[in-house]
Amino acid sequence: MLPFERVTILGTGLIGSSLARAIRNRMPTVRLTGYDRDAAVAARADELGLFDDMADSAGASVCDADLVVFAVPVRAIGAAAEEIAADLPRDAVVSDVGSVKASVLKAMAAAIEGPDRIVPAHPVAGTERSGPDAGFAELFENRWCILTPGAEADARNVERVSEFWRRLGSEVELMEAGHHDMVLAITSHLPHLIAYTIVGTASDIEDVTSSEVIKYSAGGFRDFTRIAASDPTMWRDVFLENKEAVLSTLQRFTEDLTQLQRAIRWDDGDFLFDRFRETRDTRRRVIDAGQDTAAPDFGRDRR
Ligand SMILES: NC(=O)c1ccc[n+]([C@@H]2O[C@H](COP(=O)([O-])OP(=O)(O)OC[C@H]3O[C@@H](n4cnc5c(N)ncnc54)[C@H](O)[C@@H]3O)[C@@H](O)[C@H]2O)c1
Ligand SMILES: O=C(O)C(=O)C[C@]1(C(=O)O)C=C[C@@H](O)C=C1
């Protein structure tokens, strides 16, 4: 038996459209309804045939759903939840795919009656692209999906959402929302902040013309430019909604950077060598953990 039969996705960009495609492939009998508040995005999702129906209002999109998923930027989730609250069937489960969890859980719980049916989710999979054309069905395969239900969530609903993501090929993990935000601050949010910074710094350096930066950008810098091309709205929201965790991680990072700066200044080769050896070991452990393989390959085909 399928965990859900009628799924509504609000926001039909990269993640919403990937979710629609993955559901089509893996649970073809599910009735899919989409809604995007940007009329051009909604029209494109319709043209691509990603949904059975594209609704013309948020309320209309959920009135028959048994699962509603917010796939909009994290700061938009509260308002979107308020928009659907009156039309939501009492037994519908409510979820999301936001990259930050504590504030999103709070925003959904404030707008929607019945905390037992709120099961937030974060598929830890994505690319730097956005919009419905950027999505692809395999995005979630062999990737983690972290669920962060509050204490009042009904265990049966948590199990249904877990089963939903397992059917899309993800590995599901449960985590407390605040803990999720601490972990993702270091594994995802800080790396994006560093990429935005380094690409910005390179463009600002006066004696290296931007054409030389582009011309000679190989290896490391090129990888940073991919991350730094990520959606500005999405990432503005992530940093503002995960402020505390990002700032405390950033504090630690700047202290570590200062240590490296000092080692370079005082020719402390041993310090540099030991640090780089440790980080190489970390890379090996990441590869051994096995979650480094699937999405980058799918993504690369589309970059
Ligand atoms: N991009 C990634 O790598 C990634 C990975 C995992 C999770 N996420 C999360 O997924 C969510 C969506 O990100 P995305 O990359 O798909 O962004 P996207 O820009 O591709 O799509 C977001 C869509 O939401 C629509 N939207 C905004 N407000 C809305 C509202 N109130 N009602 C209906 N539609 C609305 C926008 O018009 C846009 O089409 C974000 O919360 C993000 O944090 C992103
Ligand atoms: O691979 C990328 O481009 C991503 O940025 C994906 C990534 C990540 O940092 O791993 C970005 C944000 C999401 O919340 C989850 C995944």
UniProtKB/TrEMBL annotation:
Pfam families per record: PDH_C, PDH_N
GO process annotations (BP): tyrosine biosynthetic process
InterPro entries named in the record: 6-PGluconate_DH-like_C_sf (IPR008927), NAD(P)-bd_dom_sf (IPR036291), PDH_C (IPR046825), PDH_N (IPR046826), Preph/Arog_dehydrog (IPR050812), Prephen_DH (IPR003099)
Swiss-Prot/TrEMBL keywords: Amino-acid biosynthesis, Aromatic amino acid biosynthesis, NAD, Oxidoreductase, Tyrosine biosynthesis
One GO MF term: prephenate dehydrogenase (NADP+) activity
Coiled coil: none
Prephenate/arogenate dehydrogenase domain span: 5-294
Statement: the UniProt record of this protein carries the keyword Nucleotide-binding: no
UniProt catalytic activity: prephenate + NAD(+) = 3-(4-hydroxyphenyl)pyruvate + CO2 + NADH
Enzyme Commission no: 1.3.1.12
Protein's pathway: Amino-acid biosynthesis; L-tyrosine biosynthesis; (4-hydroxyphenyl)pyruvate from prephenate (NAD(+) route): step 1/1
Family: Belongs to the prephenate/arogenate dehydrogenase family.
Protein name per the record: prephenate dehydrogenase
The species this protein was found in: Pacificimonas flava
